[in-house]
Specification:
The radius of gyration is 26 Å and the shape is elongated. The chain is built from 15 helices and 21 strands. It has helices at residues 3-9, 144-147, 168-178, 198-211, 230-248, 260-273, 287-295, 324-332, 341-345, 362-365, 375-399, 406-423, 432-443, 458-461, 465-473, and strands at 15-16, 19-23, 26-29, 39-44, 50-59, 62-67, 80-87, 89-92, 100-102, 118-121, 138-140, 152-153, 160-162, 180-181, 188-196, 217-223, 252-258, 299-300, 307-315, 335-338, 358-359. The longest helix has 25 residues, at 375-399. With 474 residues, the protein is α/β, with parallel strands linked by helices. It has three domains: 3-86, Elongation Factor Tu (Ef-tu), domain 3, CATH 2.40.30.20; 91-363, Rossmann fold (3-Layer(aba) Sandwich), CATH 3.40.50.12240; 375-473, Bovine Mitochondrial F1-ATPase, ATP Synthase Beta Chain, Chain D, domain3, CATH 1.10.1140.
Length: 474
Amino acid sequence: MAVESLLERSLLSVEYQTVSYVTGPLVFVENVHGVAYNEMVALLMPDGSERSGQVLEVAGNTAVIQVFEGTQGIDVDRTRIRFLEEVAKIDVSPELLGRILNGTGKPIDGGAPIIPEQRLDITGSPINPFSREQPADFIETGISAIDGLNTLVRGQKLPIFSGSGLPANELAAQIIRQARVISGEEFAIVFGAMGITHREAAYFMSQFETTGALERVVFFLNLADDPTVERILTPRCALTVAEYLAFEKGLQVLVVLSDMTNYCEALREVSTAREEVPGRRGYPGYMYTDLSTIYERAGRIKGNKGSVTQLPILTMPDDDITHPIPDLTGYITEGQIVLSRHLHRRGVYPPIDVLPCLSRLMNLGIGEGKTREDHRAVANQLYAAYAQGRDLRRLVAIVGEEALSDTDRRYLHFADAFEKHIIGQGESGRSIEQTLSIGWELMSELPMGELKRVRDFIDKYHPTAGEQAAAEKN
């Protein structure tokens, strides 16, 4: 947060030595004057070290400060507080690409100091609704279950709902490697890691380095053993850099935030320390509003080449999609990609359960001139056929496969083939043309009369339409 330069500019500001109480990540300071909400604070320790914080609340002459580096070792009688008369800001520059920063935006990769071009408020500025441009450009992720059935569109916010132990990080790394807009332009990546383990951090670093993606990545790294409160700043710092690269430098920016569950846990910790009345599962009642200030920073601006696309990742506690975190996230964002533990146990990668998945902006990014004219129809037919096959699996468990009709057996086998060839593609990428072609091959195993949703495209794309028509005549 460049607190050192703030201190230099604030040498004449008033210092307080009136700390009255410390609890969790919070410090209470008495007898303050002229202090503002969200104002940045420097805590000057007796040993000469410094910590940074932010004003959470001002009530009368008492200020509540959240300390980003933690409150351990703070001496109530000897610690001095200096209010810096400025909100949280971050230094931005094109030189940030290829750099690794901590959760508050300070370089930790041992590289050269970053010479800032601007210094921006991390809360950002909301996009004027009149100036927002409707997302309409297809993003090819190379993953069939996303490109074919739950298309990602430039400027969209599409979260990944994962569970403990599921390969959400591997899926995110694959998307980062493969994501392209229809023009073939690569994305600049802003990766905000919140509360991840050292092992996960090492995995992402090795992925970025071996694939050459690191040079277009800004990596914000808050580890599990870093201060919890720092996680509240990490996504806002990441999105401020993303907005700068997109709307000031005209880049296509993909923001990956992992793990939003850790962010919400940090919110709950601060709320508990403030003794606020809890909401569902102990999370603060304002969590919906707080999450919206993060997710709504995705989008495009009319007349501006750049865009901010978000892929937040969250871990559903106990795989519960009705838990407050995925529940509120689903209300704010434009769909979700849901990972399945059942598919993962069967060795399917990526284990995307397409039935509860949704991309609300899919229709804006597909069709003739963007992907292919039959894209929507193929997606509808594949979804319907797979859903019917899944239903028949439950029936087979009761009555056995022998009791099914020939058409039902075909749907049952279609569901297996769909999971093997469309969902379980492995780590290799596919173009949208390959995805749609595989979809048509799978549908060719179904009776022609069942393909009602793709009827208008059968003659052009069905691989065996002529043969089946001749067989039916005979």
